[in-house]
């Protein structure tokens, strides 16, 4: 079920995505989670061949140049089945590649987008640091100007695909200006001397999506890898709204999958001589789940439709992310409850949905930080969290 009538091209690509996700990634989804197996290069290239990695990226680089809702429909179908597979599509269509697309030079686009669209290489985003999470502008990673480029030192934390990705869009201090004003972004590449990774994190969810510190010790970055100079933090976060809609879609998929599986389960499972669905309290819980999923879907779809091939509105994006993240946590919790003991096993995949729901709600800015943004847009004022 979807909240609004869709365009035929979205229906078509959604159907193809659902089929590929179920056939290729469905059978191994549980095992991948248990063993924390990342998506292989061959699997990623297959996603590239099918066109899933360049849906919302320009045609001249091998993408489809389609509006954001098409990419989100594909992310959703994959995420219902396998978040690690969906992550590849999320990262390429809504992650740092979009920053290159919107803010990079034509030479940078030509250099980095085609291999991402083909699935030959990946780019992760590195913003957070040990002492700069919600307060991203407290970051300390520094890029010192030298002849022909910059020398970068610092530590980035919680980097999804850390250690696995070939390139990192790294937010860092590029001038002495305080706070957001000194922040810009460069691309660092695996193999550059001085770049290393921490041990793989063992997260509650997100299993099959590697996470590690990215450590920079005097990494020399050439001038041509500077994407946004100091002073561009606002522009970077303008594009980050696309990633937040990708994130919201992951949550939406998680909630929808939990609802779909629960609907099927309560019709099949019998207690007291009749299916669980016959009990009124179960019906009310199901109704609550649908209500929450559909409300989040409307907000995500509205923000995505407004973005088209451009940038989403920040207020609509924060409303969508906050609603979808919190919905996924609540709906998967209800799903676990309605699955009884079976919901608490790995076999049914419900606890996996619940664990992943928590991860997506922290990544990309917590619901509390979205609420601060929402209030700020509503009141037309900025609220300095340091005062
Ligand atoms: C699964 C996962 C994937 C991630 N992937 C990436 C990635 O690829 N790249 C990257 O750069 N980062 C990534 N992150 C990091 C993520 O962006 C940060 O974890 C997030 O921004 C929160 O920062 P923190 O963990 O330091 O929590 P903190 O900022 O310490 O926050 C802790 C709690 O305090 C609350 N809080 C903080 N400040 C305020 C305030 N002013 N008002 C009210 N409440 C407040 C928060 O909402 C939260 O509940 C990822 C994180 C996770 C868990």
From TrEMBL:
Residues of the Acyl-CoA dehydrogenase/oxidase N-terminal domain = 8-120
Carries keyword Cell inner membrane?
A: no
Key word Flavoprotein present: yes
UniProt domain Acyl-CoA oxidase/dehydrogenase middle: residue ranges: 124-219
Which part of the chain is the Acyl-CoA dehydrogenase/oxidase C-terminal domain? 232-378
- Keywords assigned: FAD, Flavoprotein, Oxidoreductase
Which Pfam family, any one, appears in the UniProt record? Answer: Acyl-CoA_dh_N
Lineage, top-rank taxon, reads Bacteria
Identify the InterPro entries for this entry: Acyl-CoA_DH_CS, Acyl-CoA_Oxase/DH_mid-dom, Acyl-CoA_Oxase/DH_mid-dom_sf, AcylCo_DH-like_C, AcylCo_DH/oxidase_C, AcylCoA_DH/ox_N, AcylCoA_DH/ox_N_sf, AcylCoA_DH/oxidase_NM_dom_sf
What this protein needs as a cofactor is: FAD
Similarity comment text for this entry:
Belongs to the acyl-CoA dehydrogenase family.
- What name appears for this protein in its UniProt entry? Acyl-CoA dehydrogenase
* Species name: Actinomadura keratinilytica
